[in-house]
Design brief:
Blueprint lengths: L1 E2 L6 E2 L17 H11 L7 E5 L10 H11 L3 E5 L2 H7 L6 E2 L3 H8 L6 H14 L4 E4 L4 E5 L5 E5 L11 H14 L4 H16 L7 H12 L3
Helix pairs in contact: 2-3, 3-4, 6-7, 7-8
């Protein structure tokens, strides 16, 4: 690893994936207000995805305030954020939340490693208010406590993870794609796992064909 003292240049060359998170940009209030004006154009049935950390220059209630407003308008709001931020807004009934193992630990102070263990916590998240809750367990797979009252599980396909950046975002995109295509909750979860896995197996975001291939494999699972 070569790290210059001024931190303007960073070179990593190793087989193991390393995550380095820099400080986010400073967001001026005027830009936040501009975003809110854009969001006001959304209508009932539209989908809004709030994902990632909140910049330090903004209030930790930013996602809460946006979610409260959007849900009241009937906008299907998806939130993928850290446990503490997620905990504060679950009772607003977001359309979907997707905590991973670390975020689940922040929510319930528990380490979950199997799909069976995750099912009860997915149901608990729904009881707290979320309309749908996916708990992603990386190479293990994912579970979905759905708005139809059922809990679905999907084992992740086998493969070598080479780049997990964007895998969580891909999962959300896969689930939303499935729901828009009206394939049902079970297959939407499989499409979510296929999209997340395909991106993790690739050095870049997965292509449609790569996702489709994994999706067809998962549909053959019992």
């Amino acid at each position: 690893m070569n790290l210059r003292k001024d931190c303007r240049e960073l070179t990593l060359k190793e087989r193991k994936e390393t995550e380095i998170n820099a400080a986010g940009p400073k967001i001026e209030r005027e830009y936040l207000e501009e975003l809110r004006m854009i969001l006001e154009e959304l209508e009932a049935g539209d989908i809004l995805i709030l994902a990632g950390s909140i910049p330090a220059s903004l209030s930790r209630k930013t996602y809460y305030d946006i979610t409260k407003n959007m849900v009241s308008k009937g906008v299907k709001t998806v939130v993928d954020a850290s446990g503490s931020i997620l905990h504060d807004l679950i009772n607003l009934r977001p359309y979907l939340v997707k905590p991973n193992q670390d975020e689940l630990y922040e929510l319930f102070d528990v380490r979950v490693s199997t799909l069976g263990e995750a099912q009860s916590y997915a149901k608990k998240i729904r009881e707290m208010g979320a309309r749908n809750a996916i708990i992603s367990l990386g190479e293990v797979g994912a579970v979905l406590a759905a708005e139809d009252g059922k809990v679905y599980s999907c084992i992740a396909p086998r493969g070598s993870a080479v780049n997990t950046v964007g895998a969580g975002d891909s999962m959300i995109a896969g689930f939303i794609t499935g729901m828009l295509a009206e394939v049902g909750y079970e297959d939407s979860l499989k499409l979510a796992v296929a999209a997340g896995s395909a991106s993790a197996f690739s050095e870049r975001l997965a292509t449609k064909d790569e996702i489709q291939q994994l999706y067809e494999r998962l549909k053959q699972q019992a």
